[in-house]
Structures are given as structure tokens and as C-alpha cells.
Design a protein that fits this description.
The protein is an alpha+beta fold. The protein is built from ten helices and seven strands. The strands form two sheets. A five-stranded mixed β-sheet has the order 3-4-5-7-6, covered by helices on one side. The chain has a two-stranded antiparallel ribbon with strand order 1-2. The longest helix has 83 residues.
Length: 415
């Protein structure tokens, strides 16, 4: 567990570093108090610089101004450059790096240049004033440029972090919008399923009423169909209400989301279904043929005895296959081999799609029937199933879906 240690609202390490820096500046002045120009008065100026530097991160412009005033006092008394004047360079570096406005750093650089000339005229010894000016100017310029470089990198990193945060927020918003749109689509399709079941019930009930006396056996069969269809419709209605009531499911981290291509712009021969038509499993061969025409190599196998599925569950299986193949075409590319299997185990329906990832990108992306993994995850969750998707060690991508069958599977009747 990471402990966030801070003092006065600042990180403890930063405060400790500033205290050490300020202590060294003050120590330089105190150590030379006995034999430096200005004596203890100069040491007092050094101590003032050290105390001021404690606030160099939070108030860089004010610290630079205060240090400049103390340095001006030093020049006014003619003490010349001293060891603790390193505090001037630290204040210059700080204002260039931490000031909110860049012009504060530029102004500090101009003041430092004037200070360099004044200090050069007070240099003691046999060195010419202009040589001292060049030397001090090189040191001051290097410190100023160092501060500017660090400031530029710091602002660049901050901009990258802000951009990443913005992209993350946009991604979450897009994912929420995709989930909401997919749930609306699922609800609309389930509504059509329920309406179809109600129509079947009405037709069979009317038939049973007319045949009750003339053909009791047929009437009993019609009543049984009404009961089975009613139970099925009630179950679909429950799922419909669940889709509209449940909060959006969060997409697990690290799972990419396939974004659908706009309708109408796809590979020729591979088109989405009309908006209000409900596809069925008997149309899977036609769907596979369209993807084969688009460039996928599909190995399709069905195992087990297929029981009659509720219309909503049948639609979910169809959409899962459609989305899995669409993602394979988008990401594995044209020419990729997809092994697709549909297993009926008696208790569940399992769909598995594995591509080898060895195709080439299509000229135009294929349109999707939903929102990629987000759409599949939403549809599978409606029927209490599970979805596993991820890369394979041998290359490519795999999608595996497990959908439990209802405890009582109704009889399919066409109205």
C-alpha cells in the first residue's frame, strides 16, 4: 500500500529537498562570516535568501523578487560576488520552471543580466571586468536555459496527461453511448419477439375455440401451444424489462472494443440486415457466404442435436456469430482463416470463433450488426451467459460464448 506523505499540502520529499537547499545557501553565508566582505551583515543576507528559497515552488515570482532585492543590497554595499550568491541562480531557475507565466521568467532573466554586469564591476583581483562578465553570463544563461528546458518538458508531460485523461473520458462516454444504443436495439428486437408470440397465441386460441367441439385433440394441441408460447413470451418480457432496467455493464480493462462502421459503407456482398427484420439461425449459411465473399476463410461445424430455441436466444446466437466474424474481418483481415463452431450440449449453446490473424486489412471495413464486444457482452448478459474474448498465444483472436438454455424450451410455431 502506497502512503501519500505530505506536509503543508506539498510532497514531503519536495519540502525536504527545499530545506536542504535553503540550508546550504545560509551555511555558505555563515561559514564565511568571519573573513568575507560584509561580515555578519552579509551572513544575514545569506540567511534571508535561504529562508526565501523555502517557498520557491509555491511562489516562484515573489521569491525571485525578494532574492533580487537582497542581491541588490549586496551590490549597493560593494561586497561583490560571494559564495551564497548561488541562491540567486536557484531563484532564477525556480521562476523560469515554476512560474505560471513565462514572462516572469523572461523578466527574471533580464534582471539577472543586469545583476551580472553590476557584479562584474565589483569583481576583486586582477581579472578584467569583462572577463568576469562573460563568465558570470555563461553560468547565468546556462541556468536560465536549463530551467526553460525543464519547464517545457514539464508542460509537455502535463499536456500528455491531460490529453490521456480526455481520451479516457471520451472512450468511457462512447462506451456508455454504445451500450445504451445496443440495449435499445436489443429491447426493440425482444419487443418484436414478444409481439410475434402474442400473435401466435391469439391465432391458436381462436382456432382452439372453433375446434373445441369438432376436433378436441387438435384443440388441446392448440391450447398447449398457447400455454408454451405464453410462458416463452413471459420469459422474453422479463428479459426485456431487465435490459431496460439494469445499469450499463462496464467493459473490463484491457479488452478492446470494436467500433462499428457506418451503415451503407461496407464490402460489396456483405451488408447488414434491414433495421426491422429479425434474422434466424436458419440464415447462418447465408451470413457465412457473405463473409466468405468478403474474403474470410470460414470452417463451420455444428455438433450436438439442436433443440428449438426461443426466438430471443436464437437472435442472440446469430448476432454473436455476426459480430465475431465482423471483428475477424476488421482486425485479422481479408484472407484470414476463421474456425467457427456451434455446439449444442443439451444444457447450453456454445459459440466459438477463432481466427489465425494472418489476413490483410480490407479495403473498406465491414458493417457490424452491433457494437463489437460491447454489443456481444450486453446480449450474452441478457440470457445469463458468459463471454470470453482475447488474443491467442499462437496468434490471432478468439471469442467464446456460453448461453444456457431455458429450463423449458417452448415449441416454435409460425403465425
Amino acid at each position: 500500500m502506497t502512503v501519500n506523505r505530505s506536509i503543508f499540502g506539498r510532497p514531503l520529499r519536495s519540502v525536504a529537498f527545499d530545506v536542504v537547499v535553503a540550508g546550504f545557501v545560509a551555511l555558505f553565508g555563515l561559514a564565511g562570516a568571519a573573513n568575507q566582505p560584509g561580515g555578519w551583515w552579509a551572513a544575514l543576507v545569506a540567511a534571508g535568501m535561504g529562508v526565501t528559497l523555502l517557498f520557491r515552488r509555491t511562489h516562484p515570482s515573489a521569491v525571485a523578487a525578494a532574492v533580487a532585492v537582497l542581491a541588490l543590497v549586496q551590490v549597493a554595499f560593494g561586497w561583490g560576488p560571494l559564495a551564497f550568491d548561488v541562491g540567486v541562480l536557484i531563484a532564477l531557475y525556480s521562476v523560469v520552471k515554476y512560474a505560471e507565466r513565462r514572462r516572469d521568467g523572461i523578466l527574471a532573466g533580464v534582471v539577472a543580466a543586469v545583476g551580472v554586469l553590476l557584479a562584474a564591476f565589483q569583481t576583486r583581483g586582477d581579472v578584467a571586468w569583462w572577463a568576469s562578465a562573460v563568465w558570470l553570463a555563461l553560468i547565468t544563461g546556462a541556468v536560465w536555459l536549463m530551467g526553460l528546458n525543464v519547464r517545457t518538458r514539464r508542460l509537455y508531460v502535463l499536456s500528455l496527461e491531460e490529453r490521456a485523461a480526455t481520451l479516457e473520458r471520451e472512450r468511457e462516454a462512447e462506451a456508455r453511448a454504445a451500450v445504451a444504443e445496443e440495449r435499445t436495439r436489443i429491447a426493440r428486437e425482444l419487443h418484436d419477439v414478444v409481439a410475434h408470440s402474442m400473435a401466435v397465441m391469439i391465432v391458436q386460441a381462436d382456432g382452439a375455440r372453433y375446434l373445441f367441439d369438432r376436433d378436441p385433440e387438435t384443440a388441446r394441441e392448440a391450447v398447449r401451444v398457447v400455454a408454451d408460447t405464453g410462458r416463452q413470451a413471459l420469459e422474453e418480457m422479463r428479459r426485456l424489462v431487465g435490459v431496460l432496467r439494469e445499469p450499463s455493464l462496464a467493459e473490463p480493462a484491457g479488452v478492446p472494443v470494436a467500433v462499428p462502421a457506418p451503415d451503407g459503407g461496407g464490402t460489396p456482398g456483405l451488408s447488414a440486415e434491414p433495421a426491422h427484420r429479425r434474422p434466424a439461425l436458419v440464415e447462418l449459411p447465408d451470413l457465412l457466404d457473405r463473409f466468405r465473399a468478403a474474403g474470410l476463410r470460414i470452417d463451420w461445424t455444428v455438433s450436438g442435436e439442436a433443440p428449438p430455441l426461443p426466438p430471443g436466444l436464437e437472435l442472440t446466437v446469430y448476432r454473436v456469430v455476426q459480430e465475431a466474424l465482423t471483428n475477424a474481418l476488421k482486425h485479422a483481415g481479408v484472407g484470414a482463416t476463421v474456425t467457427l463452431s456451434l455446439d449444442h450440449t443439451g444444457e447450453a449453446v456454445e459459440v466459438r470463433a477463432v481466427d489465425d490473424g494472418r489476413g490483410r486489412p480490407p479495403v473498406r471495413p465491414a458493417p457490424s450488426g452491433g457494437h463489437g464486444l460491447v454489443g456481444m457482452r450486453e446480449r450474452v448478459a441478457v440470457y445469463d451467459g458468459s463471454l470470453t474474448a482475447g488474443p491467442r498465444l499462437a496468434g490471432g483472436w478468439q471469442v467464446q460464448v456460453w448461453l444456457p438454455l431455458p429450463s423449458t424450451t417452448g415449441t416454435e410455431v409460425s403465425a
